[in-house]
Amino acid sequence: MARDLDVGTPTVFGAFSVALVVSAVLGPAAGRAIDRLGGRTALTANSMVFAAGLALLALAQGPIGLFVGWAMLGVAMSAGLYEAAFAALVNLYGKQARGAITGITLFAGFASTVGWPLTAWFELRWGWRGACLAWAAIHVLVALSLNGSLPSAKPPVFDKPSGDYPKFTPIASIPR
After folding, report:
1. Rounded distance, CA 153 to CA 149, Å?
2. What are the extents of the domains in the chain?
3. pLDDT tens, 19-48?
4. What is the spatial distance between Cα 156 and Cα 159, in angstroms, rounded to a whole number?
């Protein structure tokens, strides 16, 4: 990637770091969107954002395209990774979401067993740009369908605070 774009390896990692920062900044808004819209709507839209980011990255011709592609992937990461899936499950099932969360965690733990070799194969066969486009196609053809098949959720009804929360005791006031 660095060689093809005529940039240094630190620039590629810097662009990836931008994606992580964008994801972190947008994470709370992504959670609110999942609460408001439900997991199906948010995750389905996010499949398209992932595909767009990967396509932008594949089309990059220099550092600007590299950073724009990774920034778009940061937007997708904010609402399309573990945290978003867990929020969607809690939105759907409430306290009964634990089993589904465990299932996703186990399934996702095996994802790298398939994902890394598949990515390596894509890259060897079609280069890094082709690998990005292959993953973009997988987001459209597989993830979009899976996310679209999620049940819709009603917006949550949050209870009013009861006022019986434990009182905060500053450390300085605790007797020694």
Report:
1. 12
2. 2-151
3. 999 999 999 998 888 888 888 888 889 999
4. 9
Note the pLDDT tens digit of each residue in 119-175. Answer: 999 999 999 999 999 999 999 999 899 888 888 765 555 555 555 545 544 555 555
Structure tokens at 129: 């740009």
The residues, any chain, with a CB within 8 Å of residue 91's CB and separated by 6 or more, are 34, 35, 38, 39, 153, 156
The set of residues, in sequence order, having a beta carbon less than 8 Å from that of 170 and lying 6+ positions away, is none
Contact 80, 43 (CB under 8 A): yes
Report the predicted TM-score, pTM, of the whole model to 2 decimal places.
0.81
Q: Give burial (CB, 10 Å; 0-12/13-18/19+) of 170.
A: exposed
CA distances from 126 to 75, 118, 120, 135, 144 (A): 26, 12, 10, 12, 23
- 77-108 burial, b at 16+ Cβ within 10 Å, e below that, comes to bbbbbebbbbbbbbbbeeeebeebeeebeeee
152/43 Cα distance (integer angstroms): 11
Contact 23, 77 (CB under 8 A): yes
Query: Which residue, chain included where needed, has tokens 């973009």?
Result: 136
